[in-house]
Amino acid sequence: GSNLVLSKFDTFRKAEPDVDGVLSFTAIANGTMQQPDLHARISLEKISVQGKPLGGVEAKADSTGSNLAYELQSQLVGAQLNASGTTSLLGEYQTQAKLTVRGLDLANVIELAAPGSFKGTSAIAGTVSVSGPAAQPRKMEGAAEFNDVDFKLQGVELKAAEPLRASLKDGRVTLDQIHVTGDRKSTRLNS
C-alpha cells in the first residue's frame, strides 16, 4: 500500500478521531515460518494528534535463513529514536537489539496525554541494549546508559553529572549508577 491517509478509513477514524498519518508499506515473503525470506518496509509519516504534527516512523525487516534483522528510525515529538536488532526464528528466539534516543523532551510526551498539565523541559539521550531468548523475557539481559539527562521544572534544574546506568538481569532492572546535581546539591547512588 502507498500513501494511505489513516483518517480516510472509517474504522480508524471512529477508533482514533484525533489521530492521523500517512501509511505506506511493502512486504514480500517466499518461504516457511522458520525461513521466511522476508523483505518488509513500513512508514508512517505526517503523524498528527489533534492537528499537531508529531513526526514519522520508518521500519524495515529482512530475513536471511532463519535470522530476522530489523531497523527502526523515528522522529517523533522532537526526539530521534533509532533501533536495530536481530532475532533467530528458531527455538527460544535469541535476540540482540539496541535502541538509541536523542533529544527526548518528556514535556512533549506529557503534553500529548495531558495538555497544559506540565510546565518544564527535559533533554534525554542514551542507549539501551538487550540480548537473550525473546521467548523467555525473564532470561533476557540488558544495559542502559544515558549520557545526557537534564530536567528543568519550575526553575529547578536537575542534571546527571555522570552517565546514568541501569542493567537488566533475571527480569529485574537495577539502577547501577546515578549522580544528579542541582542548585548547590549533588546526590550519588551506586549499586
Low-pLDDT parts are: none
Structural class: mainly beta
Overall pLDDT confidence = 91
The strand count comes to 13
| Overall spatial form | flat
> Termini distance?
50 Å
Largest sheet: 13 strands, antiparallel
In DSSP terms (H or I, runs of 4 or more residues), the helix count works out at 2
Radius of gyration: 20 Å
Order of helices and strands: EHEEEEEEHEEEEEE
Structure write-up:
With 191 residues, the chain is mainly β. Helices cover 7% and strands 65% of the residues. The longest helix is centred in the middle third of the chain and has 8 residues, at 106-113. The protein is flat.
Please specify the SSE layout and strand pairing.
Elements: E1 4-5, H1 10-15, E2 19-29, E3 38-49, E4 52-64, E5 67-76, E6 79-88, E7 94-104, H2 106-113, E8 120-133, E9 141-153, E10 156-160, E11 164-169, E12 172-182, E13 185-190
